[in-house]
Amino acid sequence: YPSEFLMQKITEDNQIPVHLHVSASLQYVAGLKGNALVEFFHGNIAEVENEELRHLMWSSVLFYKTPNVEVMACVLLSTKAIYFLLDDSFIHADEHQSDFWNKENSDCENSSFHLSCCFVLKLNDLQSVNVGLFDQYFRITGHSADHIVTCLTRDSYNTHTFIQQLMAVLSLLARTPSPEPVDKDFYSEFGSKNTGKMENYELIHSSRVKFIYPNEEEIGDLAFLVAEKMDGLTNLPSLNILLYVLAFQVNHVEGSAQNTSLLQPKTLILTSSDLFLFDEDYISYPLPEFAKEPPKRDKYQLADGRRIRDLDRVLMGYQTYPQALTFVFDDVQNQDLMQNLTLDHFGE
């Protein structure tokens, strides 16, 4: 262990996305290749001696307890657990996290010693995996609020690959088999009231972990919500969602030393008539079983919306993936344009 093919694959995957900045400790991890990477895993991360590293992925992650802090992580999947090697900036991002991360090594901050937090989710504790719309992200759920993590891959290929690898690793787990299903009689089978609401597609793995995929209704709900935000300008039947993609909105900061660009996570939705940016809650929905109250914010909150017919031109950057697009709209102050977002604060 491990095979040459696996070693090469993990080395290829060990690349930080170019548009995201990470701390020195994670830069060090990203510089490791082949054998050095496997030895680093066994020497610093692995919890038991005989576990095997099967997959590596770089992704932004969100925790259920800190839903507003998106942090870069190196996600390592082994035959025993999923490890999230976190950027150390996460520790200082929210003062309410002191109970979540018991950090005792604060005296290391000013030395040349770089500390990373590693969040461990054991495969035996895994209960379900929710795959987001168009495989742009997935949420891993354990047995408590501390064990819910969303990986914002923003890439269907990365999501698909990770899910495949996770299923393969879960197949190795020895769990007690599920009890035999009880044979239902005719009356209970056909007499139950059908609510008419279609459940999400569920695949129950042999390890009893649920893999839950979105259904068509979710797109329908999203189309309805988008139509509502359009202030009745378009009739719902003709509204089609053409594109749903997790992206970043670039806010250029000119006052800073190097004219830096701040990246704000947004959900971009394109319909046949409009272009929308939403702030989406990727971690709270669907509600975990232990949740006693609904989340404080809606799943989708409108950040901006423009009509396609007001689009003047699209500027494309020539850099490699991820591509930067600039949408230039005609600044027409017309009443039938989308309402000013500030109006929401002052009632009708």
Topology at a glance:
Layout: H1 4-13, H2 24-30, H3 34-45, E1 53-63, E2 66-78, E3 81-86, E4 117-122, E5 128-131, E6 138-141, E7 148-152, H4 156-170, H5 186-191, E8 201-204, E9 210-213, H6 216-229, E10 241-252, E11 261-271, E12 274-280, E13 300-307, E14 311-316, E15 325-329
Parallel strand pairs: 5-9
Antiparallel strand pairs: 1-2, 1-7, 2-3, 3-4, 5-6, 6-7, 8-9, 10-11, 11-12, 12-13, 14-15
Give a short summary of the structure.
One of its GO terms (biological process) is regulation of protein localization. This protein has helices at residues 4-13, 24-30, 34-45, 156-170, 186-191, 216-229; strands spanning 53-63, 66-78, 81-86, 117-122, 128-131, 138-141, 148-152, 201-204, 210-213, 241-252, 261-271, 274-280, 300-307, 311-316, 325-329. The protein is α+β, with helices and mostly antiparallel strands and 348 residues long.
